[in-house]
Amino acid sequence: MKQKIFKSLFAVILICSIFSFNIVSVGAAYQEYLIANGIEISKTKYVTTVKQNNVITRTIKKSALIDLKKELAKQALTEHEQNVEIMKTIGFDEKTIEGMTAENIDSLFKDVVSFETHTVYMKANTDGTTSVISEEECLAVTEGKNTASSVATTSGNNDGWGAWTSEDGYMRMTISCAYIDPSSMNGQKGWYYFHAWYEWLIMPNYRIRDAMSIAVPTCSWDTLNAPGAYVSTMYYNFINANGDASTATVTSPEEMVVAVNGVYSVWDLPDDIGLLVTYMQYYMRARARVTQFNEATSITAFLRYSHTYYVISATPTFSWDLTSGKIGVSVNANLNIHENAYCHNVNYTYTP
Predict the structure, then answer these.
(1) Residue 156, SS3?
(2) Per residue in 143-167, is it b (16+ CB within 10 Å) or e — as a string?
(3) CA distances from 205 to 7, 96, 276, 283, 314 (A)
(4) What is the DSSP string of 240-252?
(5) Cβ(240)–Cβ(275) under 8 Å?
(6) What whole-number distance in Å separates Cα of residue 113 and Cα of residue 263?
């Protein structure tokens, strides 16, 4: 009897050992696959972060968002302060949060059950081309720019603002896909808030009027005057000729344009006349519904930022471009207008 028990235990231990070995082997193979494809995955209690090809994806699922809100509710924080903490937990930069109005921050998570962001850093080269770069490279250059500006301010050498001579611009583009609780939309499934942040971490030297857009061809867009459906704001930091730092916020100077596959907004950029603009953020929010909301489908969201500048003074006009993979607002070019287009596409999966 004892021999039978011993043999049975030995068999169980052997099976468990083989099973554990297979799990370890699969895990090691998976890690090798991730490394070979340049994929980095990290997880915290609430957020999963994936980095691949210089694109940073952060996801907080429904259960994690509920748990985080419960945890924050236990603390002596206002609802707004809780929302700021959620943004920090998801990975938003302090500068991005600083540039948003309190109302827009509080709208980010209202009636939202899950939240996903994609962030990419871009360099605006002096030859008119753009390139995607790493977060580390962009922030290192930005720090160099800020240091040069600080030296110029403290030394009183405002002519050229110190040692910084590069004419390249650097931009951070972020889009979020926030799924809206169907119970807050009269039981209708498939509604999303699409949020976009276009941030000039280093401003381009030449500027007139720019346009920002979000396009999601598999969605139908809410009516323009629907409450809370659309918003567009501009925020920027600047230093005047006396070295004094200040900020400015402008909200929706013009209505956003709703096109067949998305939305866009146009803004005049502040000039460096008697001041130095050190940072600028454009924030957009738009509400849309997946067309096929009763079945699982892939969603592709297109970001496009059209930066214009001129050789001889002229006024740019904009149109909706559907002729290429870079869907969004573009400039109707003429001999006087130049355009740099900053584009980024991301994919989501909708599950009803």
Answers:
(1) coil
(2) eebeebbeebbeeeebeebbebeee
(3) 79, 22, 10, 21, 17
(4) ETT--EEEEEEE-
(5) yes
(6) 23
Tokens of 14: 């052997």
Q: Which of 31, 176, 34, 169 is nearest to 91 (CA)?
A: 176
Q: How far is CA 190 from the centre of its chain?
A: 21
How far is it, in rounded angstroms, from Cα 132 to Cα 125? Answer: 11
**Residues 344, 328 contacting (CB under 8 angstroms):** no
352 residues of the chain, pLDDT tens digit each: 545 555 554 554 545 555 555 544 555 565 565 665 679 999 999 999 999 989 999 999 999 999 999 999 999 899 999 999 999 999 999 999 999 999 999 999 989 999 999 999 988 876 667 788 999 999 888 888 777 666 555 545 444 444 444 567 889 999 999 999 999 999 999 999 999 999 999 887 777 788 899 999 999 999 888 888 899 999 999 888 777 889 988 876 566 888 888 999 888 887 777 778 889 999 999 999 999 999 999 999 999 888 877 655 556 677 887 776 778 888 776 667 777 788 888 888 888 8
Element (H, E) at 41: strand 39-43
Q: Which two tokens stand for residue 275?
A: 């001041």
Element (H, E) at 127: none
* Sign, Cα dihedral of 12, 18, 22, 25: positive
**What tokens appear for 298 in the block?**
């892939």
